[in-house]
Amino acid sequence: MKKKLTVALLAGLAMFSSVAQPEKRTLVISTYPVAPALFDKLVYTPFKAICNCDIVVETGANADRLAKLEARRANPVVDLVLLSDFGMLEAANKGLVQPLDYSKLKNYPRIYPAAKNPIGGNFAVGYTLYSVGLVYRTDKIKSFTSWKDFWREDLKGRISLPDISTTQGPLMLNMANMAWGGKTDDYATGLAKVVELKNNVVTYSKSSSQQASLFAQDEIWAAPIPRFVWAQVLKIGMPLKWITPAEGAAAGMNVMSIVKQSKNADLAYQLMDFWLSKEVQTALATELVDSPVNQDVQLTGAKAEFNTYGADTIKNLKFVKPEIVLQQRAAWNDKWNKAMAK
User: Fold this and answer.
1) Which sign, positive or negative, has the C-alpha torsion 66, 68, 71, 72?
2) Which segments within 107-249 are labelled E, that is strand?
3) Which residues lie closer than 8 Å to 176 by C-beta, 6 or more apart?
4) Collapsing DSSP states into helix, strand and coil, what is residue 172?
5) Where along the chain do its domains lie?
6) Which one is the CATH code of 23-129+252-311: 3.40.50.2300, 3.40.190.10, 3.10.20.90, 3.20.20.30?
7) Contact (CB, 8 A) for 185 and 231
8) Model confidence, pTM
C-alpha cells in the first residue's frame, strides 16, 4: 500500500511539474553563415531572455536554404527565414512563405520606405541593405571614377569582378548596363561588356573575402566591394580608396519572412520586431555587421562611413528589381557560361 502511494505521489508531482514548468518552445531560423557569434550576442541571446524560448539557427547559401524549405514544404522545420530580396520572391512564388501582417510589427513604421514590402504581396520586410562601391589602389591608379574604368587598358589583368552566380552578379550587370547606355531589363548591353573583359579579369570571384585576398596578394588593383566588408578589406593594410561611381551605388537588400505553416509564427513576429528595433539595429551597425533600416539609428564617424547609412544615401541607391533577377537569371547564366567557355 505504501509503495502504491509513493508511486501515485511521484506521478502527481511529475504532472504538477509539467504544468508549472511548460516545455520551452523552439524558434528555428534560416539565415546566412555570416558573423554567427555577433548575431548570437546581439540578437538571439537577448531575445531568448524576452521570449523564454530556445533558438536553433540553420545557415547556408540562398539556393541551398531555398531547396531545404521546398523539401520540407509539407512539414516545415524553419519558422523565420532570411534571404536576399530575389531569393525571397522565389520562395513566395513557390508558396513557401506566408503574407505578413505588418500591424504586428510596431517598428515597421520606423523603417525606410525601401525596406517596406520590398518584394510585393506583403511577403517580406527588409532588415538590412547594402551598397557596392568601387575600391582601388591609390598607389597604382591615379583616378578611378566610373564602372567604365574597368575597361581601361592600363588595368588589364589587374581587376576582379563578381561571378554571375553570386548575389553581386546581377548588381554588376545593372551597373555595367547603365554605364554603357543599356536600356533593356535583360541587361544585354551590360552582359556583353562584362564578357568582353574576360581576358582582362584576374578572376570572377565567388565572395568578397576572395577579392580582399586578391588585393592583399597584389594581384588586383580595383574591384567592386560591398560596404559591409569595406572595413575588413581596409585591414589588409594596402593604400585603398572607396568611391561611389558616377553611375551611383549599386545596392542589394536582405529580407525576412515567416515560413508558411510555421508552428511558431507568433514568436517569429516577435523576433522580427525585435530585430527591427532601434536598439538592435544600432548594435548591429555599430559592430559593422549589418547596415540599419531603422530610420532612428544614429551613427557618426567611422561607424557611419562603414555602413550604408542615411536617408540621402539610401534614397539614391540603385537596386535591381527582384522580379528582373528571377526572370533573367537562367538566360544570364546560360549566356555567361557559353561566353566564358569560348
Assistant:
1) negative
2) 125-137, 159-162, 201-205, 222-226, 240-243
3) 147, 182, 187, 189, 190, 191, 193, 194
4) helix
5) 23-129+252-311, 130-251+322-341
6) 3.40.190.10
7) no
8) 0.87
pLDDT tens string, the chain, 342 residues long: the values are 445 434 443 444 344 444 455 688 999 999 999 899 999 999 999 999 999 999 999 999 888 999 999 999 999 999 999 999 999 999 999 999 999 999 999 999 999 999 999 999 999 999 999 999 999 999 999 999 999 999 999 999 999 999 998 889 999 999 999 999 999 999 999 999 999 999 999 999 887 778 888 999 999 999 999 998 898 899 999 999 999 999 999 999 999 999 999 999 999 999 999 999 999 999 999 999 999 999 999 999 999 999 999 999 998 899 999 999 999 999 999 999 999 988
Instruction: Dig out the grid coordinates for 278 from the structure.
Output: 532601434
- Say if 23-129+252-311 and 130-251+322-341 have the same CATH topology: yes
Neighbouring residues of 51: CB distance < 8 A, sequence distance ≥ 6: 27, 267, 270, 271
Q: CA-CA distances (angstroms) from residue 76 to 193, 201, 262? A: 43, 43, 7
What distance in Å separates the CA atoms of residue 44 and residue 21, rounded to the nearest whole number? 22
Q: CA torsion 332→333→338→340, rounded to 10°? A: 100
Q: How far is 78 from 69, CA to CA, in rounded Å?
A: 8
Distance between CA atoms of residues 258 and 305, nearest Å: 32
Q: Is 13 exposed, middle or buried (0-12, 13-18, 19+ CB in 10 A)?
A: exposed
Beta pairing class for 97-98 and 201-205 = unpaired
Query: Residue 130: how many CB atoms within 10 A of its CB?
Result: 23
Domain 130-251+322-341 fold is D-Maltodextrin-Binding Protein; domain 2 (3.40.190)
* CB environment 176-198: b (16+ within 10 A), e (fewer): bbbbbebeeebbbbbbebbbebe
